[in-house]
């Protein structure tokens, strides 16, 4: 029996790269998704696994919450590598092999981005330890917080990362219009991508600031005068990151930890969050150190010295 754990973007990508694989159903911890249809498949509560024969059970975890889900499945008596595995790794492998032709520009562009990122890492981060996931990067960055101040996330979307962060900090503010990208980003992500019809469910110590950054951030800073202890930039665009740095330039100081969700390792990364941060550093004359990066993704964390 083949099951996919994760009825969200990861599950969608898994289906795309395993279009000829017979899948029985999806499971997800989100009660709002259970007993509903996801791309033609029924979504069930993970507790259904307790009722199934383990001998024929095969579960692909198509979620960024791999560590948490792994522990959950281990409690069910399942064995990693036999009953379940990291389906995100399958996605990456299949993405690189499904369309292996001389006309595959998407693959060529990604390989060029990989090569450029590898050169960047060899030049600037040769002695920096990497992480295996975006949440591992967040965790290491949070552990590096030493400054008293406000904690902010820009680009909340479905709330997965801000809820993860909020479990480890006292209070965090999340900025998002929830209307999607304000402009075209890269191929496959046009204006309006990531639009949500309703606000996500967030933890009690999360406060959402709804609206475009340039409209909400100035008013927020009038009310809160503290420096920034932690900033998670997950807004994809150069223009959005520039707005963030333009407004927070006087709040970013020695000890501020910043995590970028799309810093490098995708086509055009040099013109995105990386460019906005480089411009900010050049103008501010601040110094920083690299904390870690996701060796199989796009995330990077730094700390201002």
UniProtKB/TrEMBL annotation:
Lineage: Bacteria, Bacillati, Bacillota, Bacilli, Bacillales
Keyword set, alphabetical order: Methyltransferase, Transferase
InterPro entries on file: SAM-dependent_MTases_sf, TylF_MeTrfase
Keyword Transferase: yes
Membrane-spanning residues: none
Name under which the protein is recorded: Class I SAM-dependent methyltransferase
Coiled coil: none
PANTHER family assigned: MACROCIN O-METHYLTRANSFERASE (PTHR40036)
Gene Ontology biological-process annotations: methylation
rRNA-binding keyword on record: no
Molecular function as annotated in GO: methyltransferase activity
